[in-house]
């Protein structure tokens, strides 16, 4: 049995024993490998970076979905950029009020192979009649679509390879353009202890673009280096300041069963540590 050594960071990283290699291919866009690991279940990596594991994917997908959707409270149209493994789509589909889900994933091979080798991630969500799956560059889509969305979730790889453009100023501006009144953009934004510059860059691009911008966090074990941050940009300053009781009512009304998300976690996730606040130039978590 060989090992899978993540190569995201020079001189520091995580290693998985590959108990079974399930699939490996160079797609049109990236190198993909899916393997079985006794502790973490099935694991997918793209271009040397761990993307998702069966064991801990619920944390990431629940937090990047239920925080914006329950804060918005009336989202009908949702856009997912990336998300080829289908885990985000599975969580969005759990919201009965959502009427239309557009998912723009650049690499159709990721979708096909995750349907085959990571079926628990999507759990049939790709067959949801609300889904419009578009195989295209998310940047091109948000720059050209005339559709508007209540929530946009950028579930991208790190800013390397095809994912790099999803951290650009143009991307955030285009997403802002595609948001309906009261809309919210959330994005995967790396682990600040290891990728502080990524948070700083995003902060500088969100500032002035959104009525309210901030970050929220969750510790996802296989996104190594500490808690992961999610960027938050909203056209409505009230969405991030909902009373706990309001969140509790929304969560109860949704009827969604979770393994990580709850209203208290939702509220607490927006409390950033000092070094992150200083890095993004904010005096506090207000
Ligand atoms: N949870 C992972 C993380 O936090 O790094 C992301 C998982 S998901 C597999 C990332 C997806 O983004 C991949 O399927 C990749 O093909 C897709 N992607 C990368 N660049 C893209 C782009 N420019 N447009 C659309 N999808 C893109």
From TrEMBL:
Transmembrane segments: none annotated. It catalyses: S-adenosyl 3-(methylsulfanyl)propylamine + putrescine = S-methyl-5'-thioadenosine + spermidine + H(+). Pathway: Amine and polyamine biosynthesis; spermidine biosynthesis; spermidine from putrescine: step 1/1. The active site is at residue 155. CDD domains: AdoMet_MTases. GO terms for molecular function: spermidine synthase activity. The keyword Cytoplasm applies. InterPro entries: PABS, PABS_CS, SAM-dependent_MTases_sf, Spermi_synthase, Spermidine_synt_N, Spermidine_synt_N_sf. Residues 1-235 form the PABS domain. Keywords: Cytoplasm, Polyamine biosynthesis, Spermidine biosynthesis, Transferase. Gene3D superfamilies: Spermidine synthase, tetramerisation domain (2.30.140.10), Vaccinia Virus protein VP39 (3.40.50.150). Its EC number is 2.5.1.16. One of its GO terms (cellular component) is cytosol. Signal peptide: none annotated. It comes from the Bacteria. Spermidine binds at residues 61, 85, 155-158. S-methyl-5'-thioadenosine binds at residues 30, 105, 137-138, 162. GO terms for biological process: spermidine biosynthetic process. Homodimer or homotetramer. Belongs to the spermidine/spermine synthase family. Catalyzes the irreversible transfer of a propylamine group from the amino donor S-adenosylmethioninamine (decarboxy-AdoMet) to putrescine (1,4-diaminobutane) to yield spermidine. This is Polyamine aminopropyltransferase. It comes from Pseudomonas mangiferae. The lineage of its organism: Bacteria, Pseudomonadati, Pseudomonadota, Gammaproteobacteria, Pseudomonadales. The gene is speE.
